[in-house]
Amino acid sequence: xxxxxxxxxxxxxxxxxxxxxxxxxxxxxxxxxxxxxxxxxxxxxxxxxxxxxxxxxxxxxxxxxxxxxxxxxxxxxxxxxxxxxxxxxxxxxxxxxxxxxxxxxxxxxxxxxxxxxxxxxxxxxxxxxxxxxxxxxxxxxxxxxxxxxxxxxxxxxxxxxxxxxxxxxxxxxxxxxxxxxxxxxxxxxxxxxxxxxxxxxxxxx
Length: 205
Hints:
Elements: E1 4-12, E2 16-21, E3 24-30, H1 32-37, E4 44-53, E5 58-63, H2 66-75, H3 83-92, H4 95-103, H5 107-111, H6 118-128, H7 140-150, H8 156-167, H9 172-186, H10 192-203
Parallel strand pairs: 3-5
Antiparallel strand pairs: 1-2, 1-4, 2-3, 4-5
């Protein structure tokens, strides 16, 4: 199995690059973000490789890091997500943003991927929610709060405060992070109005 390729960029196709390694040209399929980050033809490149062997073909998928390749594998553990959809997701969201979106149950962010509808986005978020926090760079308290909201277990003042911030134009993850911080400083008995006031302070920092 091929795990890594280091060579010179020969040419580009619509969703792949030809990487010249010692005179042998390897066709490597990549996410759009990966292709955009690679150098012009003639430039040197190193790609982490995922090798797919089938009866009729051997297909190579390339990534800028082992971390990105790991997400490619993880995404395909979700029902209905194959290599093409996994590459499309990674073309829309870099690994850290994807981990954050899943940890925060932000289905809308995942659904921005072309070809990924609300149902597939929901499956990605729900099936990978226990794995994503390990890769995310968000506050664990925010992850916990997002999970509680998703499962209808969050206190009413908290959900009302988040809803109020969303109505003011803030994104759901942004609002959840602000109210999580507000809730931590105000305590469990805080009322909605207090949480909104403290949440707005957090957002203005």
